[in-house]
Amino acid sequence: MSVKVSIIVPVYNSAKTLRRCADSILNQDFTDYELFLVDDGSTDDSGAICDEYAALDNRVHVIHKNNSGVSDTRNTALDLAHGKYIQFLDSDDWITTSDVLREINDLFEKNE
């Protein structure tokens, strides 16, 4: 599997913000990416929300793991990522416009 961008979102007890984050990624007009939602041992509904998104879109990959912190969580997904570029986004963040991934990709490609 080859994709341009691997987006990694560590998730820990983020049920209140996770949908906004995931929707902002899935609503991008640039679609050559994979999205890793990495549930770091959440005790709220975050894990189930991650699974919902994976069931709706085959670009979404979910990893459930025991809590070990954000660095280990990111590294877990990095080991599985296929993208030429890596983007990290926290689960309480969101992308405000639908063209951000395309613009970033175009900038990297233009400037090698």
What would you say this structure looks like, in words?
37% of the residues lie in helices and 26% in strands. It has four helices and four strands. β2 (33-40), α2 (46-56) and β3 form a beta-alpha-beta unit. It is globular, with a radius of gyration of 13 Å.
Number of strands: 4
Number of helices: 4
Strand order of the largest sheet: 3-2-1-4
Secondary-structure element order, N to C = EHEHEHEH
Assembly annotation: single chain
Blueprint (SSEs and pairs):
Layout (H helix, E strand, L loop, with lengths): L2 E9 L6 H9 L6 E8 L5 H11 L3 E6 L4 H9 L4 E6 L11 H12 L1
Parallel strand pairs: 1-2, 1-4, 2-3
Comma- or semicolon-separated keywords:
112 residues, 37% helix, alpha/beta
Summarize the structure.
By secondary structure, the chain is of the alpha/beta class. The chain is built from 4 helices and 4 strands.
